[in-house]
Amino acid sequence: MADPLSIASGVTGLLSLGIQVTKSLVDFYSAYKDQTPALAKVTLNLENLLGILQALDDARKNGEPQTDALIQEIDKATVGCREILEELREECQKFQKDTALGLKARIQLVGRRATYPFRESTLKKLEEDIGEIRENLSLALNVLQLRNQTGLEDGISELRILVERMNTIHISTTIRDWLKAPDATIDHNAACEKRHTSTGLWLVNGQQFQNWLVERNSFLWINGFAGCGKSVLCSVAIQYTVRERQHQPSVGIGFFYFSFNDESKRDCSGMLRALLLQLSAQLQGAEGDIQELFELYKSGTPPVKALLNSLRKTICRFNDTYILLDALDESPRDNKREGVLDAVQTIRQWNLPTLHLLVTSRNEMDIRLSLEAPSSQDISMKNPDTDRDIQNFISYQIRNDSKLRQWKSRHEEIQEKLTSKAQGVFRYVECQLLALKRARIRNHVDKCLRSLPRDLDETYERMLCSIDEEDITEARLVLTLLCLSDRPLTVKELIGALAIDVSKLQLDREGRSFSQDDLLDICPGLIELAVVEDEGSGEATTIARIAHFSVQEYLESDRISQRGAAKFTIQKEPAHTEMAQICLTYLLDPTHSKGEFNKAKLEMFPFGRFAAMQWFHSYNHSGKGKPDIEPLILRLFKDQPESFVTWVQLYNFDHLLHPYHGIDVDTILEQGDDFIGAMAYIQSPLYYAVLLRLEYVFTTLISSSGKETTIDAALNTQKLVCEKVVQTLLDHGTGVNAQGGYFGNALQAASSELFDGSFQEEYYERTMDEKIVQTLLDHDADVNAQGGVYGNALQAASYVGREKVVRILLDQGADVNAQGGVYGNALEAASYGRRENVVRTLLNHSADVNAQGGKYGNALQAASYVGHENVVQTLLDRGADINALGGDYGNALQAASYAGREEVVQILLDRGADINTQGGDYGNALQAASCAGREEVVQILLDRGADIDAQGGSTFNNALQAASWAGLEKVVQTLLDHGADINAQGGSLFGSALQAASWAGQEKVVQMLLDRGANINTQGGDYGNALQAASWHGREKVVQMLLDRGADINTQGGDYGNALQAASWTGQEKVVQMLLDRGADINIQGGDYGNALQVASWVGQEKVVQMLLDRGADINAQGGGKYGNALQVASYRGHEKVVQILLHHGADVNAKGGKYGNALGAALQEGHDKVVQILLDNGAKPEPIV
């Protein structure tokens, strides 16, 4: 047998020997079941040493020995361990069973095993050897950890860059505001802050994760119990993925953290919206997909099915997509989690080869059954690697925290005890370290270590029971607010809430003034503060939140009620009752509504905005506690008009119904003293009572109908916040027919749906609608009152499908054909809303089936657009004109074609629809289907005889032009294969298909059109030709392609004269450079502005002006337009820097020509005083304006 030392003579052999020996010792001791604390400690240290040796060995294999400083350090350290490794080998040999021994020797060896390996001296010697090896390897290990840390820090930087890019490109503010995607970076940053240097390296360096990165259609489930650090591990995985994959071509990375303390991050809709926005913002051209989603659902949040379809389409555009989802278990099991798991299951069932999905959660039964992850995709966090992470975390904390460093002599004991008690729970360790940091003397440290709690429950019980008696009420209030709130509260809001004396339900701002430090003292270890960016202002804001999911879970569990901390129990209904009372108490305090409503008032009453939003939510979750809250609500609506107005100013529920949330409090404040415009949106108390379905308040207010109500009297006699607000309310009226608001009046509000379907189902029964509608009508509500988004009550009820309400309104004399509102009439509204039964009811009550009006022109077009076949059939059976013109899409066939409703298209054609009828934004059905990329519909229309070259439409002139602009290669191919005229002229904007594709930068379509014979120099449209269109939009690759294929670089035509002038106008420096390098005539005349230099001077493109001058542009060239020359153009426009550049390059300051005679005349005409001074300083001579 070869001498082991000869095998291990090299560094590689030494590391291999160390790994082999250490692993043997780990296996030996791990197999022994009844471990003493000393033995357990040795085993853990051996496992830690094994991990270090393996990490160093891996690093050595992956580096360059001659140049890598890390490898050189490893080699040096390993050689220094030679003697100790030999000793370890000898110890291991004593433990090993020698198979060659006879029976007697084996019996003797077994006896030795039962004694020698477990002797105290043996274990102590092993500890010494392990410590010496670690000390020798420490420098190499530090270098390795620094390298890994640097890599992960690079990941953080790259992720930050990725997020910044996602926030600035492609997706418009309008789309972002509509989509309202939750910001996952807040949670990611919070998780990163808790990560220790080496945490999670075992995961990202492990084989399962590495396989996940590269395997097709890969999936990984990381699971563990509460507090084991899943979110921190997910943050490591995200950063590593960004670092390793972001720079590869066409890779998308999306992530989402479910959060128990943020309502927007609890369900699958929030997850899908966040992923869709993140991925769309990383992809050129994806804005078209999300724009289509916006067009379909702009009035509200898209349904989950539509979000999933859009997400799948976006994922398919990438070469690889990585999606990482953290904490599925923080989606509430009772009402949200099933939807989340269904969405994850749907995504996995797509079986997309380019998708890599990673999720983390607790190992809960419903999640495990839904995911069905095989062992190769299942990573449990109950493993030695997590224990090592915890050990390293403790070691780092006690060495670096100023309060823990003072107990240096106890560090080994602290580390040993906390590691052994942690059982893989990071959160447990955090809590114990927090307790140790508060220790002032050694006896306190002794007490902490001697009586460590068994688990997290006991830890939290001790924390709660240690709260000072005088702070218990405040602690309960803080914990209740944070647990029940749908979002984190700012520290200022929380301090504002503490000003309420809960025992008296009174606001005492002077006597109960707390500080930020007080919050942490009141609830030590149970809450945490974090600085985040305010979504509205973008400023740094300090928020407070529950420190960990397990804290809230414990407070809301049955377990706490059995323990000494039962007084802190949070039971949902009583807690929401208390929350609603606190919020209303704050709003009803007279000082809150006294004086001017401005930013100073918000600073003085920081809890006001949250209270204004939260009371209604808590009221609706208060269950049997509602009667205790309703007197306060009635005071707000009936007895204290000042408070009512202030509440609406702070949080107007009516604005939630406006697209993009309408006017908010910040907009009101921007109005200054004159906020009559904003206050025009405040409606009567009765309107809000109906809007929020506050039956108790509504009944009380309506009973006063016909008399002067309390609020009427108050408005007439009291000096309120603003006299103009008072007058506005009086002008609108406060009775049943008062006009205003999103719904126009109380009857329409009652007839419609409360906010959206999910909100409505949660908060009230539909029978309440019928009762309120009937009551309003009994009190003389005008059944045909006009106004609001739906025009009238009947249209509102028809749109949302309130069949009984529709019948009530019709029985009370509602005009079934009344015009108005977004859908024109009730029948069109019901047709768009897919309300088949309501459609039949309206038709049976003589609704005009061909009534015109609204966005979709008529009911048939609306039903065709949404694809409701039964409603389409019903309307046709009742005499709908199949070719009726009107609406955005011209006719029913065009609407169905654009929306891709294949079955409806077939029905309409079978029933005689004119396939080539002109009208609408897209001209005809074929163009509409082509623009939207509806391949199947395009094929159907062509098969049924659609005119492939039909002209028309407001933007595109024919189907090929529309498909080319959208970059829809398959549709373009289909149209060309069916004989579309590739050079067809027409259209005010683009002129030809090639020009449309060039403008949009659709490289593949441009290539296809050229390959199929498109005339590269065809003239027409605003941009003259394809090269000019591509140049204007800065499509560098298309410009290059066109030039390589023979495009005439100096061709004249279009608004900008030529390609160089077009690129100069939009400041496309690279394209300007390319055109000049390819021979563009720099001084060629043409277009509205004469030449390229004049164009760049007009727009103020300083860099382009400089570039043109450097390349020899004639600075004094005359002609083109009415401004004579470049200096006169820049002077007229007031571009000071351009004027200076031109003068510096020798422009003739007194050159004559143009409408204003010279540059000075142009500057004087427009009042550009600074330019005038510059020109005079450079010798300009005043002359009369010609």
UniProtKB/TrEMBL annotation:
SUPFAM superfamilies linked to this entry: Ankyrin repeat (SSF48403), P-loop containing nucleoside triphosphate hydrolases (SSF52540)
Domain NACHT: 218-362
Gene3D superfamilies associated with the record: Ankyrin repeat-containing domain, P-loop containing nucleotide triphosphate hydrolases
UniProt xrefs under Pfam families: Ank (PF00023), Ank_2 (PF12796), NPHP3_N (PF24883), PigL_N (PF17111), WHD_GPIID (PF22939)
Transmembrane domains' residue ranges: none
Keywords assigned by UniProt, alphabetized: ANK repeat, Repeat
ANK repeat residues: 792-821, 855-887, 888-920, 921-953, 955-987, 992-1021, 1022-1054, 1055-1087, 1088-1120, 1122-1154
PROSITE patterns hit by this protein: ANK_REP_REGION, ANK_REPEAT, NACHT
GO CC annotation terms, alphabetical: cytoplasm
SMART domains cross-referenced by the UniProt entry: ANK
Name of the protein this chain belongs to: NACHT domain-containing protein
Species annotation: Penicillium flavigenum
Organism taxonomic ancestry: Eukaryota, Fungi, Dikarya, Ascomycota, Pezizomycotina
